[in-house]
Amino acid sequence: MKAVYYEEHGDTDVIQYDELPDPEVGRDECLVEMKAGGLNHLDVWTRRGMPSPGEFPHIPGSDGAGVVQEVGEDVTRFEAGDRVAVAPATSCGTCEFCRDGDYSLCENFMLIGEHTTGVHSELSALHEDNLVPIPDDVSFVRAAAAPLVFQTAWRMLTTRAEVQQGENVLVHGASGGVGHAAVQIAANAGAEVWATASSDAKLELAAECGADHLINYDEDDFVSAIKGDTDGRGADVVVDHIGAATWQDSITACTQGARLVTCGATTGPNPETDITQIFWKQLDIMGSTMGTPGEMDDVLSLVWDGTLTPYVRDVLPMSETDRAHEMLQDREGFGSVVVVPDDEYEAGTYEDVTGSV
C-alpha cells in the first residue's frame, strides 16, 4: 500500500509518501480502505518528536474515513462495505476510569497516529471500537475532518465547562480545528460568542460559524474588547488552547466564578499565572482531553445532521502531506486540512467540500 510516513523526527522534509507493507488484520480489527485523512496540529507536534511514537517508519494521522474491506473473526459491529470514520482514542480498558466509561482519564490513554500507527495511508487495520459509522449522505472528506476536533471541543464546552444559554463565551484561535468547532458548539448552546483570530478574513468565517463578536488579536486587545462589550463583566467561559501567549490575559478576561478550559498549549506550556485573580474571582481552571465514546456519538450526531459542520480549508493528495503540515504550523487558512490517496485525488473520485460551513 501507499502511505504517508517518516523515519525520523524533523521538519516537513522528513515526510514521505511511498510503499509500505499492507497491515495485518487482527481478530477484533477491520481492514479499512482509507478515502480521506484529517490533519490536526498534533500531527505537527508528533512529527517534531513530541511525543515520540517509538517506532519507525511512523504513519501519522488520527482522523480518517473510508470503507471496511475485511473484518476479523471476532468483529461484531461492522462488515465489509460499511462506511466508517476513525474514533482515534485508545485506553487500557480495565482501570477505574475506563470501568466508569471515561477512558480519556485513563493513565494509559493514547491516540492513534500520535502514540501508535496512524491512518494516513491507503489501508489501515483498526480495532472495531475505534470506528464509527458514517451516514451515506456524509462525504468522506467531511467525516475525516470531524471526529478529533469536534469531540475535543464538545467535551470542553459541554461536559467540562457546562456552557449555558445566555453565557458569554470567549474562544481563542477560532480559525483552527478545535476553535471553529468550539464556536459552533457554544453558539448552538445559545451562548453569546466572542472569537479571536489573526485576520479579518478568518473572522468573517468565524462569524459564519456563529460568532457574535470578532476580535483580531493582531490589532486589538481581547480583554479590552470583551470587557468593553459587557460593561466590564467579561467572559463566563474562556476556551484557551493557545497557552503561554494568551493564558494570563484569558484569566483577566474572566468574570467572577468563570470557567477557563484548556486542551492544549501551542505557544508554550509554562505561562506566568496571577494566582490572586484565580482565588479572588473564584475561577475554575479546567483541563480537557478528547472525550468518551458517548460524547463522540453525541457530537457526531450533530455533525452528521448538519447542525455542526467541519470547515475544510483545503484537500490535498497524500503526496503533498508536507504542504498540509506547513499550512497547519503556519496557521494558513480556516478549519481543517484533509489529504486523500493520490489515486483518488488524480481521478477526482473524492468529494471536495473545501470551504463548507
**Number of E strands:** 17
Write the CATH fold name of the largest domain.
Quinone Oxidoreductase, Chain A, domain 1
Order of helices and strands: EEEHEEEHEEEHHEHEHEHEHEHEHEHEH
Structural class: alpha/beta
Q: Any low-confidence stretches, pLDDT <50, length ≥5?
A: none
**So what's the overall shape?**
globular
Helix % is 25-40%
CATH architecture of the largest domain: Alpha-Beta Complex
Q: Count the DSSP helices.
A: 12
Return the CATH class of the largest domain: Alpha Beta
Tell me the β content: 15-25%
Walkthrough of the structure:
The structure is a single chain. With 357 residues, the protein is an alpha/beta fold. It has two domains: 2-146 and 310-347, Quinone Oxidoreductase, Chain A, domain 1, CATH 3.90.180; 150-287, Rossmann fold (3-Layer(aba) Sandwich), CATH 3.40.50. It has helices at 41-48, 96-99, 140-145, 147-160, 177-188, 200-208, 222-229, 247-253, 275-281, 293-304, 321-329, 342-347, and strands at residues 2-5, 16-19, 29-39, 63-71, 83-86, 89-90, 110-111, 123-127, 131-133, 168-171, 192-197, 213-216, 235-239, 254-262, 284-287, 312-317, 336-340. Strands 3, 4, 5, 8, 9, 16 and 17 form a seven-stranded mixed sheet that branches. A six-stranded parallel sheet has the order 12-11-10-13-14-15, with helices on both faces. Helix 4 (147-160) crosses helix 5 and helix 4 (147-160) packs across helix 10 (293-304). It starts with a strand and ends in a 10-residue tail after the last helix. The model has no long low-confidence stretch (mean pLDDT 94).
